[in-house]
Design goal:
Number of helices: 9
Helix content: 10-25%
Largest sheet: 8 strands, mixed
Oligomer: single chain
Strand content: 15-25%
Shape: elongated
Order of helices and strands: HEHHEEEEEEEEHEHEEHEEHHEEH
Radius of gyration: 23 Å
Length: 301
Amino acid sequence: MKTGATAKARKAAEAPEILRPAKIRLQKALAAAGVTSRRKAEELIAAGAIKVNGKRVTELGTKVDPDRDAIEVRGSRVQLEKKVYFILNKPDGVVCSAEGPKDAEGRPTVLSLFPELPQRIYPVGRLDFHTRGALIMTNDGDLAAALTHPRHEIPKTYHVKFQGKLTEAELGALAGGVTLDDGTVTRPAAEVSVIKETATNSWVQITLRQGLNRQIRRMGEAIGRPVLKLIRVAIGGLTADGLADGEFRPLTPTEVYDLMAAATPAAHPKAKARTRRGGDAPVADAGGRPRSRLAPGKRAG
């Protein structure tokens, strides 16, 4: 028994950081649970009115695990909200809104695709009403803010159906930056590669590290090639592979960690190599023209 316990302890100590629960400051946990404000929580901690796992806590820097630690405020147990993370394959004709199952115009929202949950989740960023694909849903406000902050330049990959057969000059414009209708010049794309093309349309894979409103549709308008279909196939390294339109699944601990590492690399230095692997250079086909790395026949048909 003793040997088994020692081995178990050693295994836990060697467990990768990605599987360990994240801890947050006690006052933040109490505020997130709606118990009180952070400032008032700090006053309660200093006054010795809070216990964690049966022990009175008076240090403001105390951190807790919302999923495991038992917290009491003046003898009453506090139910902390567990952080949840989902990837949704958003279908066409659904609004990216957290105001309820339907928006003010009566259109279905992404919340209508989920069962009733104890947590209040919301979409991270937005996809247009007619844009399909990968969308993160969570109640983790810190992660959502980090993922959408322009400074962090989280790459997002799309499959885009343009009207007409794009010329090399038009592909070059998409890659190098175009002037939008309001005068904004887009940053160079991380990748622009042709998936397939016909005489009447072109499917192109585009990876951006910028998130302007309706950016890809406006880029198409800028080069005179309207966007007929738009699918987001990846956020960083996260995809909605295997999910039908409207389906979702919870993220794995590794996926959550990788998202956090991508959004806050300074706080996750050990993950830098993994989250930046792969590079942005497109893959070329036999004729020298870039092709998709993301199984185009499955998504762009």
